[in-house]
């Protein structure tokens, strides 16, 4: 004799099923929140990295400009020292004194040495 077995759907307690669904939703929400938090941290790290690289490039430009200015000022300083040496040379000063002021070397008796 064959007996027919009818399949009955498993009945679960509705209270347990509600808890299970809530737990699944809570787990899903936590995963999404964790993923969003991770994405925000990653984006923040990338933005900080890009900002730091831009700062490095900016400081490099400032350093280059400052270096060029320093070189120019050093060259100008050398030129001014050369001009000063030329201006105060004894031969030039004597020539200017003779030409512009019509001065001549002192003759004997014009120089009096004081004790």
Helices and strands in order, then pairings?
Elements: H1 14-87, H2 90-99
Annotation keywords:
115 residues; 73% helix; single chain; mainly alpha
Q: Care to describe what's here?
A:
The protein is an all-alpha fold. It has a domain at 24-99. The chain is built from two helices and no strands. The chain has helices spanning 14-87, 90-99. The longest helix has 74 residues, at 14-87. It is rod-shaped, with a radius of gyration of 48 Å. The termini are far apart. The mean pLDDT is 88.
The computed structural class is mainly alpha
Residue fraction in strands: under 5%
Counting H and I runs of at least 4 residues, what is the number of helices?
2
Low-confidence stretches: none
Terminus-to-terminus distance: 158 Å
Question: What's the pLDDT, averaged over the residues?
Answer: 88
Fraction in helix: over 70%
- Helix-strand pattern: HH
Oligomer: single chain
Basic shape: rod-shaped
Largest sheet descriptor = none
User: What is the CA-based Rg, rounded?
Assistant: 48 Å
**How many beta-strand elements?**
0
């Amino acid at each position: 004799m064959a007996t027919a077995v009818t399949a009955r759907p498993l009945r679960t307690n509705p209270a347990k099923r509600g808890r299970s669904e809530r737990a699944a939703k809570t787990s899903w929400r936590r995963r999404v929140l964790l993923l969003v938090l991770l994405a925000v941290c990653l984006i923040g790290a990338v933005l900080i990295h890009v900002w730091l690289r831009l700062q490095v490039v900016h400081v490099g430009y400032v350093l280059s400009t400052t270096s060029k200015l320093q070189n120019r000022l050093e060259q100008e300083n050398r030129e001014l020292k050369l001009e000063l040496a030329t201006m105060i040379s004894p031969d030039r000063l004597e020539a200017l004194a003779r030409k512009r002021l019509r001065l001549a070397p002192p003759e004997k008796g014009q120089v009096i040495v004081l004790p």
